[in-house]
Structures are given as structure tokens and as C-alpha cells.
Design goal:
Elements (H helix, E strand, L loop, with lengths): L6 H14 L1 H9 L8 H4 L3 H9 L4 H9 L8 H4 L3 H14 L1 H9 L15 H14 L2 H6 L15 H10 L3 H9 L14 H14 L1 H9 L14 H14 L1 H9 L5
């Protein structure tokens, strides 16, 4: 099963396992290769994912399949390549194993990365956020950081994905944490942002109040670079306007900050 290349092959092998009985089928579905990957982790498309999930002969096997980790600490959810695969894994957990779903939503690989930190698309991000909310772990998954300090917000691929994340914050405290989190190099989402992300982050910070906005726009990384120092023309205008909103003290601080080189 681990070597199967096509959906048809997977189906044939599963049927053969079913013929041999639940013990054989369970072993097939939870076996791991030399990297620790299972058939579920290696599935290439939503059809294969659904086929493998439905093949589980009992609850114990299915629960194990969902939470298994390879030698790099990745789960099937972390490795899911499409929104449809992500949703299929969430649905199985949501309806049958809510505790297991909470676990796999917050599980980290050896680099400390979660499914949400590695989310590649807006649809995956939305599915994970919805699941996190239903399981009561939304605040946790929104603010988790990997071993390099990256959070879901710091890793957002697009401005729209970033907006989805900030809009998902369940309260002001969580949103503030997300906005001012720094990675191991001291970078924040704002320091690393392009012009569209900069607008979205400033808008979000305003919801938390002047104090949060002021802190966010004056934060510096480990080399003392601020968002303003990294900005292009449009970003500069937006950041200066935000500084004026906060007052002379904040604007003056922004304009006189210096980097280490």
C-alpha cells in the first residue's frame, strides 16, 4: 500500500486487505516506511485520502491513522496538499473523534510547525480555523510558533490569508498577541509585510487601540530594523499616517529609530 502509485492500485490493495480481515487491513493502513510515512500521509489527492480513511476497519485504527507522526513529526493533516484533503481529515475527526481532532490541530512536527503554520491556501486556512473554533483550540492554533518563532500570521502567503487570520482572532488579547509576535530574528508580520499586508495589519491593530498600534509600528528586529525602514513608498505613507494617528511621540520615535547597519 505504501508503494501504490494510483488510486486504482490503492483500491485493489484495500479490497485484498479487507478479504484477509480487519487485523491485516489495520496493519496495512498504519504501517510506516523508512521515513515514517503512512499511506494516508502519502495520499496524492482527495480521492485517495477519502478511500484510505473509509477503509479503516475500526475506530481504534482510524484514530491512530489521524494522529500518527512520521520521523519528522508530520501528521497527515500537516502534510495535506489540498483544501479537500484537509477538509476530509477534519470531517472524520470532527464527527467521530473531537479530542483527536483537537490534538492533530495543535500537533507540531520536529520544527515546531503546525498544520495552520504550513497552510498553503486560503481555503485550507479557513477550514483549519473553523475546526479550531469548533474544538475550542482556536486561540492556541492562531498563536502557536515553530522553533524559528514563525506563527501562522508571520507565515501568511497572501494579504487575503493574513486578513482571514486576523479576522479569526476570538478576542482582542489574541489579536494583539498575533500582531506583535516576533520570530527568532525579531521580525514581526508588519516588518516582513508587503504593501497589501501592511494595510491589513494597520487596520487590525487599530481595532486593539492606539497602544497596540503604536507598539506594532515601532517594533524593531534583532538588527534594529523597523517596518518603516523596510518600507516602499506606499508602505511609508501608510506607516507615517498610522504614526500620526498614535501621536507625536510615536511618530517621532518611528522617524528617529536606527538600525545596527
Amino acid at each position: 500500500l505504501l508503494q501504490a502509485k494510483t488510486t486504482e492500485q490503492i483500491g485493489t490493495l484495500i479490497k485484498s486487505g479487507q478479504f484477509c480481515g480487519p487485523e491485516t487491513l489495520s496493519k496495512m493502513l498504519t504501517q510506516q516506511n523508512h521515513f515514517g510515512d503512512t499511506a494516508l500521509m502519502l495520499s496524492q489527492n482527495p480521492e485517495q485520502t477519502q478511500l484510505i480513511l473509509k477503509a479503516a476497519p475500526n475506530n481504534k485504527t482510524l484514530e491512530k491513522m489521524l494522529s500518527q507522526q512520521n520521523h519528522f513529526g508530520d501528521t497527515a493533516l500537516i502534510l495535506s496538499q489540498t483544501p479537500e484533503q484537509t477538509q476530509a481529515l477534519i470531517d472524520v475527526g470532527k464527527f467521530r473523534y473531537p479530542k483527536t481532532l483537537s490534538k492533530i490541530l495543535t500537533q507540531k512536527n520536529i520544527d515546531g510547525e503546525t498544520a495552520l503554520i504550513l497552510s498553503q491556501t486560503q481555503e485550507q486556512t479557513q477550514a483549519l480555523i473553523k475546526a479550531g473554533k469548533e474544538c475550542g483550540v482556536l486561540e492556541k492554533i492562531l498563536t502557536q510558533q515553530d522553533k524559528y518563532g514563525n506563527s501562522p500570521l508571520l507565515q501568511a502567503k497572501t494579504a487575503e490569508q493574513l486578513r482571514i487570520l486576523v479576522n479569526a482572532a476570538p478576542d482582542e488579547k489574541t489579536l494583539k498577541t498575533m500582531l506583535i509576535q516576533q520570530d527568532k530574528n525579531g521580525n514581526t508580520a508588519l516588518i516582513s509585510a508587503d504593501k497589501d499586508k501592511t494595510k491589513a495589519l494597520i487596520k487590525a491593530a487599530k481595532l486593539c487601540g492606539i497602544e497596540t498600534l503604536s507598539k506594532m509600528i515601532t517594533q524593531q528586529n534583532n538588527r534594529n530594523f523597523s517596518a518603516l525602514m523596510m518600507a516602499n513608498n506606499e508602505q511609508t505613507q501608510n506607516l507615517v499616517t498610522a504614526g500620526k494617528t498614535c501621536g507625536i511621540e510615536t511618530l517621532s520615535k518611528m522617524l528617529t529609530q536606527q538600525s545596527k547597519g
